[in-house]
C-alpha cells in the first residue's frame, strides 16, 4: 500500500471539473484508491465521494492506494496535483 499527503493548490479546489479530471485519471487503474480529508475517507474513483469532501484550496488530503498498479496510479495523482489540475496558468 502506498500513502501520500498532498495539498489542494489549485485556486478553486476540488470542484466539479477538477473532481471529474481526478476520477477520469484513476479510472484505468485496477487498484483501490481512497482519499481522506477533514476526518472523512472516500473512494477517490467516485465523483460524488470526492465532491463530498469539499476540499478547497489549501486543504491537505491523504491518498492511499492499494493494488497491482498502485505506483503508476500514485504517480498519476501526484502529477495531477502538481499541475494544479491543469487549471491555473
TrEMBL record:
Q: Where is the HPr domain?
A: 1-88
The record's section on NCBIfam families has: PTS_HPr_family
Similarity comment? Belongs to the HPr family.
Any idea which UniProt keywords this protein has? Cytoplasm, Phosphotransferase system
Q: Which PROSITE patterns match?
A: PTS_HPR_DOM, PTS_HPR_HIS, PTS_HPR_SER
Which species is this UniProt entry from? Answer: Stenotrophomonas chelatiphaga
Q: Which Pfam families match?
A: PTS-HPr
In terms of superkingdom, the source organism counts as Bacteria
Its main subcellular localisation, reduced to a broad class, is cytoplasm
UniProt subcellular location: Cytoplasm
From the UniProt record, list the coiled-coil ranges: none
According to UniProt, the name of this protein is Phosphocarrier protein HPr
Q: Which InterPro entries match?
A: HPr, HPr-like, HPr-like_sf, PTS_HPr_His_P_site, PTS_HPr_Ser_P_site
Q: Does the keyword Nucleus apply?
A: no
In its keyword annotation, does this UniProt entry include Cytoplasm?
yes
Matches recorded under Gene3D superfamilies: HPr-like
* Biological process annotations from GO: phosphoenolpyruvate-dependent sugar phosphotransferase system
Q: Which GO terms describe its cellular component?
A: cytoplasm
Amino acid at each position: 500500500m502506498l500513502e501520500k499527503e498532498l495539498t489542494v493548490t489549485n485556486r478553486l479546489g476540488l470542484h466539479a471539473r477538477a473532481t471529474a479530471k481526478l476520477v477520469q485519471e484513476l479510472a484505468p487503474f485496477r487498484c483501490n484508491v481512497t482519499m481522506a480529508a477533514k476526518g472523512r475517507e472516500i473512494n477517490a474513483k467516485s465523483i460524488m465521494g470526492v465532491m463530498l469532501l469539499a476540499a478547497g484550496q489549501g486543504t491537505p488530503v491523504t491518498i492511499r492506494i492499494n493494488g497491482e498498479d498502485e505506483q503508476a496510479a500514485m504517480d498519476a495523482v501526484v502529477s495531477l496535483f502538481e499541475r494544479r489540475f491543469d487549471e491555473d496558468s
